[in-house]
Design a protein that fits this description.
Strand order of the largest sheet: 1-2
Radius of gyration: 20 Å
Number of domains: 1
Strand content: under 5%
Shape: globular
């Protein structure tokens, strides 16, 4: 990645911003790679932490807005034709999933940022569930803002110190993995708990 960043030259921030914006539109793009690349770029002195923060956060917000608007169109279409299908999915199932998300959507919007794939569809799903645009973007972007600010601040503290920059990069990658596990566990806990109680009842009944 070092060689790739060096080859970008003055276009580093622009390229990373485009890739960052694409992550909410194309779920296959791993968002954490973009953030780590931005931290490495700041640590190398290629760009300032404030510039990188503004570019990456702004790009994420723009793509989240676009995804939400697509979700709103889908929301209108699904409600207009409740018996139809979209991309092979029955509208009745989408309406049912949307209602469940509406009841638990705030938790998914915040913690879903740290779960692959979920982070790339949560804004559209919030729109499909009928959640407000302002609330969805505010909740969904809050972990993005805090994460970007924290990581880039640490990267800025390592400018000119390659050993410290490499060490912080390793810490950042590990921390992202920990956040992913914690977020996934928190979101799945209600289902796991219910499943455990069901097994316990079945065992006692048997």
């Amino acid at each position: 990645m070092e060689a790739w960043l060096a080859s970008l030259g003055p276009w580093t921030v622009a390229v990373l911003s485009v890739v960052c914006a694409a992550e909410y539109l194309f779920p296959v793009i791993p968002g954490r790679v973009v953030l780590i690349a931005a931290c490495m770029s700041v640590g190398r002195g290629d760009c300032g932490a404030v510039t990188a923060f503004a570019a990456l956060t702004g790009a994420s917000m723009l793509s989240a807005f676009v995804q939400y608007q697509v979700g709103r169109r889908l929301h209108a279409h699904v409600h207009a034709v409740p018996e139809g299908r979209t991309l092979g999915l029955r509208h009745a199932h989408l309406l049912e999933a949307g209602e469940r998300l509406r009841l638990r959507g705030r938790r998914w919007l915040v913690l879903g940022e740290f779960i692959p794939f979920v982070r790339s569809v949560r804004f559209g799903a919030a729109a499909l569930a009928g959640m407000g645009r302002g609330e969805s973007l505010a909740l969904g972007m809050s972990p993005v803002v805090l994460r970007n600010a924290g990581f880039l601040y640490l990267a800025a503290s390592a400018v000119g110190d390659s050993a410290r920059a490499e060490q912080l990069t390793g810490y950042a990658q590990g921390f992202i993995v920990v956040l992913t596990v914690l977020a996934l566990g928190t979101l799945l806990w209600p289902w796991l708990s219910a499943w455990g109680r069901s097994l316990a009842r079945s065992a006692s009944a048997g």
